[in-house]
Task: structure prediction
Amino acid sequence: MPFRAPDGLWNLIEHLPDQLLFDFALWARTQKKNPARPPGASRGVHVIGDRRRLWLGRRVTIHPQNVLNTATGPIILDDDVTLEPFNRIDGPAYIGKACALLGGKFTGGTAIGPGCKIGGEWEASIAQGFVNKAHAGFFGHGVLGEWVNLGAMTTNSDLKNTYGTV
Result:
């Protein structure tokens, strides 16, 4: 089912996993044959789940010590993406053109726009184009607009100190 018009930004995050599943199905139907497969575990790249749910664009570079988990949802690595060592990506996820993931954990539904450099922990969030979060820290359940630069150890939280609903 296609994404419905959001009532607010919070709906973007709430419906992100479903939208990514819809997008992957559309991508798989409309794109040319998946142009490449990742190197196997013997090269230090581990795919958990069905490799058919992993789509690699052209000129994708995956360094050793990366884990791509398609058991939780499909993963699209668009053209010219670089995965530096020590990333874990749990699908569903879309990593946009010319992005670099610099080592981190990406969970809960991830949509990262073109030209981003992201490291650290990233959960259920959207980054528009050219976002820079190159250092450790946590970003979760949020939306970052274009050209946002987060400094080292930047962390946000959506957990109240009473553990109640935000």
Q: What stands out?
A: The chain has a mean pLDDT of 88.
